[in-house]
Specification:
55% helix
Amino acid sequence: FNTQLIQHNRLLFNINNIINKFIMKLAILSLITASAAAFAPSTTSKTTSSALSMSYENELGAQEPLGFWDPLNMVSGDVPQERFDRLRYVELKHGRIAMLAVAGHIATTAGPHLSGNIDYSGTSFDSIKTGIAGLSQIPSAGLLQIFAFIGFLEVFVMKDVKGTGEFVGDFRNGFGFGWDKFSEEEKMEKRAVELNNGRAAQMGILGLMVHEQLGQDPYVINSLLGYPTI
């Protein structure tokens, strides 16, 4: 019986490691792609003769000091508005997820955790490490629940359910949240703030993950000031 139990635990451990490695690689690849599209300069965006491409130079997010950036030439040539909207939608989604990731990383590093245990074997929430390292400590069933919850939000919640969105990424779905009280200039400013904060957060969470995988303190400034987090 003990031999079977050991083999069973080893199997669960191997499955958990495979899932964690896949998650890490997928997250890093997604963030690198989205971050590159947000920040790296394009060498042809200023010379293209396409009216469609040129029109995107005045879109939200093309602002000082970076201006218009398109490293992969994804909106160069005869790119329809639907294609641009799709790319903007993906950029916004990556940015929003990255902002939540950075906020969660900072919060858990600072100390706050849920009380109690994450499973029946007595694994407490506060014993789970911050960042990628914590994935290996979450039971497989817990990871599946997380994926299922994210999938539910993706399919049923975080979308323009009623088709009433005023712009790409407008997921209010009938809830005002005081949005209509702002002027058009204020609305554009707030949308720009969200977009640029999302871009910065993508770079931020990518940096945290890379430093963690290198075995260094993710919070370099804290470490330099004598307040290491690891």
